[in-house]
Amino acid sequence: MKALSLDLRQRIADALEGGQTQTSIAERFAVSLSSVERMARKRREGQGLEPGVRPGKKPLVETEQHEAFGQLAASRTDWTLQTLAQAWQEQGGKTLSQATTSRTLRRNGFSYKKSAALPKSETKPNETPSASR
Fold it and tell me: What are phi and psi of 16, to 5 degrees?
């Protein structure tokens, strides 16, 4: 879930200072009551209204590196995920699994399709007669 915008947080804080009830503020701004309670607690404790740090692991390919990763991926179209991950590591990046490589490619707008060089698959008719006929 995305964090509430700083503007909305400020409007909630202003409404709290104006004496409105937490329930009416939650309804007015279409946020949860717990969000309003959290803003009230932050104000009481003298904390800023900025959202906290989101939990979770940092991505192995940071946002600033996406362009370099995309250029590496676009340089050759015949790479497998494993060879692309190895090339990224050799270029100075971190070791990536195939799943991480695939997710990073999708974030960069790449999608892998069957190669045009491969023959098309055929649907062969069933040669054995069916017993139910």
Answer: -65, -40
